[in-house]
Amino acid sequence: MALGLKPGDEVIVPAFTYIAPAEVIVLLRLTPVIVDVDYESFNVTAKNIERGLSSKTKAIIPVHLFGQSCDMEGITELAKEYSLFIIEDNAQAIAACYTFSDGTELKTGTIGHVGCTSFFPSKNLGCYGDGGAMMTNDDNLAIRLKMMANHGQAVKYQHEILGCNSRLDTLQAAILNVKLNQLDEYSSLRYRAAQKYHELLKNIDEIGLPVEMPFSSHVYNQYTIKVKSSQRDKLQAYLKEKGVPTMVYYPLPMHRQNIFKQIARQREHLTVAEELSQSVLSLPMHTELREYEQIFIAEQIITFLKK
């Protein structure tokens, strides 16, 4: 809304992510253009995006999935070349850091025109309910975003633009204000837990472990492995029997969702997103995860795969 996009404008979004970014595109009567992702990082790349460009493209939504940044250098160069807005979906990667080729480091969510994050309780910085925030380095855009989130008003009862009620609840803000001071500690605990998983699972040929890309730190909102598609659901069921909760993020790629079949546009077969949706499995990952719990989880995975 704040960027002034018009009905019919196209916005590029990855096929392998949650519905939220494409959902808001459609609600604004824009057209989502769904593109494939990188198999190793799970993230959209400049090459994927370029294949989806058209004369109607106005914006890109790179989603920093599972706690790691997209390769933003190529994406920002592409955006400059074609005069496109970048709206970062940073819901799963708050506190992650991207390193450009010249050594410049920027936090995810601060690289594009707007960064969006979620404070849903399962996120790395979570409140006690629903919540979110937007970030921008543009002072004028910041004013416009604030107004839109508060019924289009900067002064009470003076509505200058069309807005909505999207204010963060004061109670949730108070909780987040305390937890924000511990965000770096939370990230370190998640990273330590991820390294323990790496150590326990590194010699199992039947699964693929998360890959840490050289240009990004990783804050591990999820620890997502890849399992042969014929085994994934069976392994998940086995782990459930043993008391180990797991989740599949995401079992149906964006272009397979019924709501988007007639609305969205895609330029190619989204083979990577299709494969990932059949093979990914996220293991327990949180700041209170204990080593003995991880050892138990790894033992159950190894036992199943040796059958």
Descriptive overview:
The chain is an alpha/beta fold and 307 residues long. The protein folds into two domains: 10-180, 3-Layer(aba) Sandwich (Aspartate Aminotransferase, domain 2), CATH 3.40.640; 183-305, Aspartate Aminotransferase, domain 1. The chain has ten helices and 13 strands. The protein has helices at residues 20-27, 46-51, 72-82, 139-148, 170-179, 183-201, 229-241, 258-261, 271-279, 291-305; strands spanning 10-14, 31-35, 57-60, 85-89, 97-99, 105-107, 114-118, 132-135, 153-155, 158-159, 207-208, 223-227, 280-283. The strands form four sheets. A six-stranded mixed sheet has the order 2-1-3-4-7-8, with helices on both faces. A three-stranded antiparallel sheet has the order 11-12-13. It has a two-stranded antiparallel ribbon with strand order 5-6. A hairpin with a 2-residue loop joins strand 9 (153-155) and strand 10. The radius of gyration is 20 Å and the shape is globular.
Helix and strand arrangement:
Blueprint: E1 10-14, H1 20-27, E2 31-35, H2 46-51, E3 57-60, H3 72-82, E4 85-89, E5 97-99, E6 105-107, E7 114-118, E8 132-135, H4 139-148, E9 153-155, E10 158-159, H5 170-179, H6 183-201, E11 207-208, E12 223-227, H7 229-241, H8 258-261, H9 271-279, E13 280-283, H10 291-305
Parallel strand pairs: 1-2, 1-3, 3-4, 4-7
Antiparallel strand pairs: 5-6, 7-8, 9-10, 11-12, 12-13
